[in-house]
Every structure is written in C-alpha cells, then in structure tokens.
C-alpha cells in the first residue's frame, strides 16, 4: 500500500525540533506592535480576567446547592443559587464576545500594519536584492509568514494569559475548599505533562514537514504553471517528469496529513485518560474524607467540576513552547527582511535636483556586481546636453550596467557620476530618476490595459496625449487594430505583444515622460525589417533635442551619434565619431565589419 510506504519514509524525515529562541529583545520588539493599540489591549486583558474568574463561580454555587439548598429544602435559596449560576455563566459568555472582538481587532490591525510596513520596506530594496532573491520567498514572507504570526497576537499570548490566570485562581480555590483534596488534584497534572509534551512535539514535527512539502508543491506550481515555465516544459517535453515530481510531493503530504491526524487523536486519548483518572481519584479519596466527616458532598462535586478548569490549561501550557518557537521562527524571518538596509537611499542632506540641462559625466568609475569580478573599470566620459552618445561593444561588455549607474540603480565602488556637474549621490533619488527616461532592453509591462501601462510614466496624461505619444512611437495603428484598442489587456508580462510592439510601447511611455536625459537600450534580438523601420521612426523624434545615451546595435543610430564609446570587458577602449573610428583599425572597425555594416549576414536587409 502506497500510503503505508509513505509513512515509513516519513518517519525517517528530519528531527528538527523548533530552534528559534525567545529572547528579551525579540519580545520587546514584538511588544512594540501592540503600542498603538494599548487601550484596547488593556480592556481585553480586563475582560479575560473577569470572564475567567466568573467561570469559577458555577462550581462553587453547585456545592452550595448540594450542601445547603437541598438539605434545607429551601426553594428560595435554590432559586437564588441556580439563577446566580446561570447569570455568572451567561455573563462570562457575553464578556467573551467582547473579548473576542477586541482580540481580533487588535491582532488584525497589527497584521495590517506589518504587511504595509513590509511592502513599503521591500519596495525600496535595491535592484541587487531583487536580482538575488526568489520572488516566491518574498511572497511567502509578506503573506504566509505574517499571516502565521497572527496566531501569536490573537491566540498564543491570550491563551498563556488566560491559562495561567485560570490555573492560579483554580488552585487557590481548591485549597480554600479542602487542602488535602487540593494536593491530590495538583499531583495529577505533572503526570500528564510529559506525555502531552511528547505528542505535541511529534505533531509539531509533522506539521513542519507538511509545511516544507507544501512549500515545495507551491514553488513547483509557481514555476511550471505559468507561460514561460510551461513553454519550457513543452519544448523540453518534460510533462511526465514534472507530473511524477508533483505526484511524489503530493503523496508525501497526504501520508503526513493522515499521520498528523492520528497523532492528534493520540493527544486527545492521553488527555482523556487523565481527565477520567482525575475525577475518579477525587471521588475515591474525597469519598473517604466524607466518611471521616471532613468533607461535604457539595465540595466533592465542586472539586470535580473545577478539575476540568485545572487540567485544560495545564495541557495547553505544556505545549505552548512549541507554538512560541514556531512563531519566533516566523518573527525571525520577518524581521530579517525588515532589518535589511536599503542599499541605495537618499543621503541625509540630499537636495532635489533642479530641472536638468542634460550633461552627464563619468569620472574614473569602477563597479562590480560580485566580489570576484570587475564589471566596469575606470570609465570616464562626458556627454554634452542634447548630444547623442552611442555605446557599442560585445555582449557582456558592460553597456547596460553603465546605464544602471546613471539612474543610481547600483552604486559605483569608486569614481563619480555627475549630471549637470552635480554628483548624483547628493541629490534625491526621486528628483534624479524623474528626469531620466529609460527604455530597457527587455521591456516590462504590467498585466493591465495598454492605457494603464502608458500612464505608468505620466499618471495624469490625457487620452489625447496617449494617442499623440503612441502615434510618434509608431504603435497607435497597431493598438487601434486590437479588439478593445487602448483598453486591451496586454496579458501576463505582456505576452499578447511581440517584442517589437512592447519596445514601441515603452518608447511611447518615454515620450510621455518627456525627460531631458534618455537612455535607450536597443533590443539585441534581431527584428524583421518592418519592425526595424517602425522602431527607427519611433526613436528619431524621441532622441531629438535631449541628451541621449543609446546602446546601439543599428548602424543608423550609430552613424547619427555625436560620440561613440566602444566598450570591451568593462573598459572604454575607443571613443569618437563613426568617421573617426571606422578607419582606426580597432575594435570598432571590427564590429563595423562584422555587425553594423549593411549587406552582411547579421544585419537585416
Ligand atoms: N545582476 C548581475 N549580477 C552579476 N553579474 C551581472 C549582473 N548583471 C550583469 N552582470 C554581468 O555583468 C557583465 C556586464 O553585463 P551588461 O548587462 O552590462 O552587458 P551588456 O554589455 O549590456 O551586454 P548585452 O549586449 O548582452 O546586453 C556581464 O558579464 C554580466 O554577466
Ligand atoms: Mg545589455
């Protein structure tokens, strides 16, 4: 039987008991999230105390019914006691409603605050962070981890408080009723703490294994059931392998869940054994004391009723450390993200960049993505306002990287980058980036309408402006042919659009933004000649009258450049105009012969 096999396999799984520690710092930090809501929290604590105390009243009243009202045959006392018992129970139940409301309100708001804080924090993380982090991990921390700790705020803390209070109050009550019997009642809980603890740990282990497997399953779904992943599967004909992998994980989860529920039943069995043992012992020893005349029948009944109030909190408290450890692990994961510094942020005395003229200057700039490789070495150049500079060079030579540095998406390790003579480290990111237009190598579009995608660069653009920009970018006619025109959804990652169409959409975005400095990373993928012409016609008006830095693959752009920078392995090896460089005998001449020159195999005719 498959399931049986699964269970055996599962028994061999890791033994990872919760490790995360509850430190004072961590607790203080968690406590801070309560601060804005301390009034409601105080009210809730009061409610918990009152409702727990009220819970003790009915058993004591029952003792009085048995010991006084019944022997005295007093109807009025009987009526008074039963009504009082009913009122106490109802009162406690009513207070619990309010308690629940406050509890949910406070914990939901804490979660709300945390999610907002986390989202906004992550938005300002550097591009480096996003290039090194799995998007699945970000989603997990922002959603499930934060949702997971909601239990701490709504459940764990509340139940510790309630259980400890009920336990103490009940113990005191038992002692005031009869100390001998109270000692017997209190001897029992320690007996079942250890088995409950064991079962609790086993459940925790299983639950965390299930969690891990579910994460595997989720990431498989995420990676394989999307357009790019599924296309790769189809092309590599890996459907069967992926199905097997899915089935395997799914099977593990199923057997683990079955096992988990059996262990859960064991837990109840253990608790039941002791909850039955307790009252019987009380009846036995209490009966003996009754024969000795030391105890009334009512007291025995009250004792048994109170025992339940004693054992439940003990059982819960003996497992609470597992809950706590699990939540602390979640807190650690969340705080790990929240504690990450923003690598790139405004310097403390950053000024707003005034309206720029468009001069861009690199002075001895060095940069590397990773410690073991230098991506840009001693880059120095200057672009005059309104000039067109073309960056050329082999793939991987560092062209795109240079443009990242201008927008301050990465920081150079040394050297200075200036715009209008102003070191870009001294101006606010917003004032800098809002004046630079970027058309990237592979255009990103949101899964929204064309209109919404265009407006992303200029929120308040009128419909006329959108049409105007799209006409200039040579994309208007195409948009009009779509079933819903400007209101057409572009699909996940713009899959409804071709590469050339996406790039023209992106050009329209840049036209709308109308920046003084424009960075244009021409797509390397060779476009057909019609798209080529369309893009060419689109970028000419875009480049006119602004400082343009173009990573160029097309001869027409390169020829039009006021300055060509030739990059090789992160260094500028040549610079000048086409006419100066083409006969220079250097890398540019080679590139020209092999790539740019018309009528050769690589350029489209
Ligand atoms: N996020 C990154 N982390 C580490 N290395 C990177 C990263 N991005 C780029 N690189 C490396 O930096 C070098 C320069 O990359 P860059 O993208 O600037 O090249 P490029 O000249 O634009 O090439 P292409 O013409 O193919 O677009 C390459 O060797 C690349 O592998
Ligand atoms: Mg590039």
Q: SSE layout and pairings?
A:
Elements lengths: L1 H10 L12 H9 L5 H35 L2 H49 L3 H6 L2 H43 L1 H46 L2 H10 L2 H53 L5 H42 L21 E8 L8 E8 L4 E6 L5 H8 L7 E6 L2 E2 L5 H5 L2 E4 L10 H6 L7 H10 L3 H6 L17 H15 L3 E5 L7 H15 L3 E5 L3 H6 L2 E6 L2 E6 L1 H5 L4 H10 L9
Parallel strand pairs: 3-8, 3-9, 6-7, 7-8
Antiparallel strand pairs: 1-2, 1-4, 4-5, 9-10
Helix pairs in contact: 1-9, 3-4, 3-6, 3-10, 4-6, 6-7, 6-10, 7-9, 7-10, 9-10, 14-16, 16-17
The structure holds adenosine-5'-triphosphate and magnesium ion (MG).
Magnesium ion (MG) binds next to helix 11.
Written overview of the protein:
The chain has 605 residues and is an alpha/beta fold. It has three domains: 23-338, ABC transporter type 1, transmembrane domain (ABC transporter transmembrane region fold), CATH 1.20.1560.10; 355-435 and 517-532 and 542-605, P-loop containing nucleotide triphosphate hydrolases (Rossmann fold, 3-Layer(aba) Sandwich); 443-514, Rossmann fold, CATH 3.40.50.300. Helices cover 64% and strands 9% of the residues. It contains 20 helices and ten strands. The protein has helices at 2-11, 24-32, 38-72, 75-123, 127-132, 135-177, 179-224, 227-236, 239-291, 297-338, 399-406, 429-433, 450-455, 463-472, 476-481, 499-513, 529-543, 555-560, 578-582, 587-596, and strands spanning 360-367, 376-383, 388-393, 414-419, 422-423, 436-439, 517-521, 547-551, 563-568, 571-576. The strands form two sheets. It has a six-stranded mixed sheet with strand order 6-7-8-3-9-10, with helices on both faces. Helix 1 crosses helix 9 (239-291). The chain is elongated. The two termini are 65 Å apart. The model is unreliable at 1-18 and 600-605 (pLDDT under 50). The structure holds adenosine-5'-triphosphate and magnesium ion (MG).
């Amino acid at each position: 039987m498959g399931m049986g096999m699964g269970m055996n396999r599962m028994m061999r799984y890791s033994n990872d008991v919760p490790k995360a520690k509850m430190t004072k710092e961590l607790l203080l930090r968690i406590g801070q999230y309560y601060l804005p809501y301390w009034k409601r929290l105080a009210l809730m604590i009061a409610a918990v105390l009152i409702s727990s105390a009220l819970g003790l009243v009915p058993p004591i009243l029952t003792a009085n019914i048995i010991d006084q009202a019944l022997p005295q045959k007093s109807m009025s006392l009987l009526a008074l006691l039963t009504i009082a018992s009913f009122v106490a129970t109802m009162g406690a139940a009513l207070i619990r409603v309010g308690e629940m409301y406050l509890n949910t309100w406070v914990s939901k708001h804490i979660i709300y605050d945390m999610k907002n804080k986390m989202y906004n924090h992550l938005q300002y993380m550097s591009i480096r962070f996003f290039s090194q982090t799995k998007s699945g991990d970000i989603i997990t921390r922002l959603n499930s981890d934060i949702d997971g700790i909601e239990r701490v705020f709504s459940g764990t803390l509340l139940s510790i408080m309630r259980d400890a209070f009920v336990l103490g109050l009940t113990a005191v009550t038992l002692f005031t009723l009869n100390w001998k019997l109270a000692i017997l009642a209190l001897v029992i809980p320690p007996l079942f703490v250890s088995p409950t603890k064991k079962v609790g740990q086993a459940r925790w282990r299983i639950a965390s294994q299930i969690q891990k497997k579910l994460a595997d399953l989720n990431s498989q779904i995420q990676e394989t059931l999307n357009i790019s992943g599924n296309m790769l599967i189809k092309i590599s004909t890996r459907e069967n392998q992926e199905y097997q992998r899915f089935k395997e994980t799914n099977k593990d989860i199923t057997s683990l869940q079955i096992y988990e529920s059996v262990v859960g039943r064991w837990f109840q069995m253990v608790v039941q054994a002791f909850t039955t043992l307790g009252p019987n012992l009380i009846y036995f020893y209490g009966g003996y004391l009754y024969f000795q005349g030391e105890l009334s029948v009512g007291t025995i009944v009250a004792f048994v009723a109170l025992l339940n109030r004693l054992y439940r909190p003990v059982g819960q408290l003996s497992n609470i450390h597992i809950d706590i450890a699990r939540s602390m692990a979640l807190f650690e994961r969340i705080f790990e993200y929240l504690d990450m510094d923003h690598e790139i942020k405004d310097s403390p005395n950053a000024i707003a960049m005034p309206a720029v003229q468009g001069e861009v200057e690199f002075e001895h700039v060095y940069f590397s993505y990773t410690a073991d490789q230098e991506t840009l070495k001693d880059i120095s150049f200057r672009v005059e306002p309104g000039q067109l500079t073309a960056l050329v060079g082999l793939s991987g030579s560092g062209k795109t990287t240079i443009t990242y540095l201008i927008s301050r998406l990465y920081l150079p390790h040394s050297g200075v980058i200036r715009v209008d003579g102003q070191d870009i480290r001294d101006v606010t990111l917003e004032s800098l980036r809002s004046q630079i237009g970027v058309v990237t190598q592979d255009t990103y579009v949101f899964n929204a309408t064309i209109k919404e995608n265009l407006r992303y660069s200029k929120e308040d653009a009128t419909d006329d402006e959108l049409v105007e920009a799209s006409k200039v970018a040579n994309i208007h006619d195409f948009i009009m042919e779509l079933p819903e025109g400007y209101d057409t959804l572009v699909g996940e990652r713009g899959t409804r659009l071709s590469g050339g169409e996406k790039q023209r959409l992106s050009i329209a975005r840049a036209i709308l933004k109308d920046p003084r400095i424009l960075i244009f990373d021409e797509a390397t993928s060779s476009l057909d000649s019609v798209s080529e012409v369309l893009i060419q016609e689109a970028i000419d008006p875009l480049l006119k009258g602004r400082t343009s830095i173009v990573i160029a693959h097309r001869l027409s752009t390169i020829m039009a450049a006021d300055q060509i920078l030739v990059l090789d392995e992160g260094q500028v090896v040549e610079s000048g105009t086409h006419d100066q460089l083409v006969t220079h005998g250097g890398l540019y001449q080679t590139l020209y012969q092999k790539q740019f020159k018309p009528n050769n195999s690589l350029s489209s005719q």
